[in-house]
Structure to design on (197 residues):
């Protein structure tokens, strides 16, 4: 399709630079805030909206990719922040309904090939969405499982320490209980030895 390739590649270059910055940022020692994560989601939504604007807007089958930031935000952020990401994606979708550069027709008189290209685009969108969601959600699930195992190990260690402390307290009590009668027996034995040498 004759699309504005230079403008699209400029958007890809900005997206690559943003991705490189994101990788650098996540390797820094200071923690990510939720607002910063929303900023990254907003950047991704803006970049995708820019590409969709240049390629047919809401009629582009890749418009469904605006769901991905919402799904990823839902797995990682509190509900209030997910609502912000959802509003941003919905606003982008709404703007792309009214403002876009129309895609040129594949063939002026062949509506079936136009529809076929749309179906292929929908299939590719589904494949991209499924791959990205399965990758990120499985990584998050693995992180949650690892966190759960760490919590379980800590709980077991705490229980073991409590049991050891209880045994130590019991042993100290038993030693005290034994010390009193033993010291009496020792004193009585010393008295009996003196009396009945």
């Amino acid at each position: 399709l004759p699309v504005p390739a230079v403008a699209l590649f400029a958007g890809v270059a900005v997206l690559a630079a943003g991705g490189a910055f994101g990788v650098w940022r996540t390797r820094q020692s200071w923690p990510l805030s939720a607002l910063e994560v929303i900023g990254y989601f907003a950047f991704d939504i803006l970049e995708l909206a820019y590409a969709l604007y240049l390629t047919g807007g809401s009629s582009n089958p890749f418009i469904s990719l605006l769901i991905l930031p919402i799904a990823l935000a839902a797995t990682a952020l509190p509900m209030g922040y997910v609502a912000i990401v959802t509003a941003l994606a919905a606003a982008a979708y709404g703007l792309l309904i009214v403002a876009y550069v129309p895609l040129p027709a594949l063939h002026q008189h062949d509506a079936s090939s136009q529809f076929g290209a749309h179906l292929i685009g929908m299939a590719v969108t589904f494949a991209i969405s499924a791959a990205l969601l399965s990758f990120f959600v499985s990584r998050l699930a693995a992180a949650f499982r690892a966190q759960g195992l760490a919590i379980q190990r800590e709980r077991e260690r705490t229980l073991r320490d409590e049991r050891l402390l209880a045994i130590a307290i019991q042993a100290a009590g038993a030693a005290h209980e034994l010390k009193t009668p033993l010291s009496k027996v020792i004193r009585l034995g010393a008295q009996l030895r003196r009396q009945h040498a």
Observations:
- The mean pLDDT is 84.
- Helices lie at 5-26, 34-54, 67-76, 79-98, 111-195.
- The two ends are 120 Å apart (CA to CA).
